[in-house]
Specification:
Keywords: Membrane, Transmembrane, Transmembrane helix
Shape: globular
Strand order of the largest sheet: 4-5-6-7-8-9
Protein name: Cyclic di-GMP phosphodiesterase Gmr
Order of helices and strands: HEEEHHEHHEHEHEHHEHEEH
Distance between the termini: 62 Å
Bound molecules: ligand C2E, magnesium ion
Number of helices: 11
Structural class: alpha/beta
Number of strands: 10
Radius of gyration: 20 Å
Strand content: 15-25%
Helix content: 40-55%
Organism: Rhodoferax lithotrophicus
Domain EAL: 24-276
Largest sheet: 6 strands, parallel
Length: 277
């Protein structure tokens, strides 16, 4: 029992829970406290064109945990996605991103940024109103914001999804399909949704030069994007061979360690201003 454990709070969770469940329970509990306590960090990763010029970037959240150190999203996003906690988390990320974009815009060098929006959050009835309010409050031009959604979003209630996306799209907000090709939905949705961009998942990108199957998959995605007039972002580009494979086939935007890792937003911005001046 917790009392006998002499201050070890974790013992409280022992009754009837597996170790993994306990860990998730604790993570959720600590995140619920950690978000309002200011423990989230906005990291940013560059997206560059074939010439190596910065064209956009992606906001990727991290959690500065008081005991466990800086945690990658894989550790806590799946936990957050099981409850409305993901909404609170993405409110934080979106607000930070919008502030940063507004600041860069005011300084005369606007920046494009993508943020990840989970299905639960996007499906929430007040999502559009909330985002439009936020953009107004922060003074953003919506055209600099891209929302990354996944194929999982498309599975049910496509009419409502289309209506919401159209509403935001008319204001200038862009949409991207993240991890394209890893979901299970039919391709038919691609022509119904106001999408601007496909992101090729890193598993395909990384093996494309060496594995003919992955190579063929990447070529198929490039071809779909070409025919539907969509931009393509390749995730996880780590080697010159991978970059070359893509560049020799299409006009692709690169996001990967070869061009820059995710780094704290202030460091990313400082570096950007150095190259601009
Ligand atoms: P994602 O949206 O597909 O983001 C791309 C992931 O690939 C990032 O992992 C990025 O750091 C990683 N990556 C980029 N280039 C390379 C590379 O060259 N090599 C390798 N090995 N990896 C590379 P990260 O930052 O760990 O984020 C993982 C996932 O967490 C993201 O995948 C996204 O699904 C999720 N995530 C992050 N922030 C948020 C958020 O605010 N909301 C939601 N719902 N999910 C988020
Ligand atoms: Mg993403
Ligand atoms: Mg992705
Ligand atoms: Mg991915």
């Amino acid at each position: 029992r917790a009392k006998d454990a002499g201050g070890n709070q974790c013992a409280f969770f022992d009754i009837g829970m597996g170790e993994l469940t306990q860990q998730r329970f604790l993570t959720e509990h600590e995140l619920r406290i950690g978000i309002p306590a200011g423990e989230l960090r906005l990291f940013v990763q560059p997206q560059v064109n074939a010439a190596g010029t910065l064209v956009s970037c992606e906001a990727l959240v991290r959690w500065q945990h008081p005991r466990r150190g800086l945690l990658p999203p894989g550790v806590f996003i799946p936990v957050a996605e099981e409850s409305d906690l993901i909404i609170e988390l993405e409110h934080w990320v979106t607000r930070e991103a919008c502030r940063l974009l507004a600041q860069e815009e005011m300084a005369g060098n606007p920046l494009h940024m993508s943020i990840n929006i989970s299905p639960r959050h996007f499906r929430q009835s007040g999502f559009c109103d909330w985002l439009i309010d936020l953009l107004q409050q922060e003074g953003n031009d919506p055209a600099y914001l891209t929302l990354e959604i996944t194929e999982g979003m498309v599975i049910d209630n496509i009419d409502e999804l289309v209506a919401k996306m159209n509403r935001l799209s008319k204001l200038g907000i862009h949409f991207s399909i993240d991890d394209f090709g890893t979901g299970y939905s039919s391709l038919a949705y691609l022509k119904r949704l106001p999408i601007d961009e496909l992101k090729i998942d890193k598993t395909f990108v990384q093996d494309a030069p060496t594995d003919p199957d992955d190579g063929a998959l990447v070529e198929t995605i490039l071809s779909i994007a070409h025919h539907l007039h969509l931009k393509v972002v390749a995730e996880g580009v780590e080697t010159p061979e991978q970059a070359m494979f893509l560049n020799s086939r299409a006009d692709v935007i690169h996001q990967g360690y070869l061009f820059g890792r995710p780094e704290p937003a202030d460091i990313f911005l400082a570096r950007r201003w150095q190259t601009l001046s």
